Amino acid sequence: MEISEEVVVVGGGIAGLATALALKRVGIEALVLERSPELRTTGAALTLFPNAWLALKALGVVHKLTSIYSPLKKTGKGPIAVHRRVLLETLARELAPETIRFSSKLTSIRTVAMDDEFSSSVAIISLHDGMTIRAKVLIGCDGVHSVVARWLGLKAPVNSGRSGIRSLAVYPDGHGFNHEVCQFVDQGKRGAYVPLNDKEFYWFLTYTSTLQDEKIAADPKLLQKNVTENLAKDFPPSFLDVVQHSDLATLTWAEPKFRYPWDLICGHVCKGNITVAGDAMHPMTPDLGQGGCSALEDAVVLGRQLAKSLLPNPNERGQIVAVEAARAIQGYVKERR
Prior knowledge:
8-stranded mixed beta sheet
């Protein structure tokens, strides 16, 4: 079976859903291919800084989150921590149900060149279930191990030498802490807890990786014990108390990867009408706190740039001129670099 789409977005995470929404806001319908059978709501929470809230305002959803979450500074202008699940669901609800095609694993990409001076092309995408999709624009929002980034020729991300543990902590009767970030730094370690509401915290610990990390990564109870009895044993009691209240279902370990800046500056971030966004473009270590924020920015810039590629006839709203889309993609890459 073969179908044709104006835009195909690979990946239904923050970057993918935000990109589809940004395109919808300018009149372009996109198809999002998500390999999982449902929204991937793991990841506990994330802290969104002012740049992310500007992007969410442009996407038209900022009020739906600020009605739930409060700034972490009394000025009302500080960062705000949100549940990753709530952010994803908020973005997804703004899209038509048929926008996201779940259980859709990308297996290969090829292009058919078009006869123009700007090297635009049609992307031919093959899925594991045998479906083929022809797309005027292909955007890879498929994470650190992006298939689209690899196809473009971007070098694989490298290990950061750091490990990260994160979780939600739950106090059913209320935690009683101030609504502010508390951060703790030790030799090679950085931890913090961030209130989400009166009963929940988001906490994380990043540290120099050790040989035993992967051995205990799959056991949340062992991870929790390793934090309280080893990694953060010298941190203040308040941090250890938050860790002890972890919802073990949300406790995860990861070894963050990143892309060298010069790979992004000098590498092939786009070819014709194909590009990447979010972690597929610029994976970051958690110490920056800008992974989700930058993904939201990518989406807004992509939407604004691709709006320039639409046919001028209002009766053909949403129809993309391929050669103009290639120019728009280059504009996006230039701006994001």
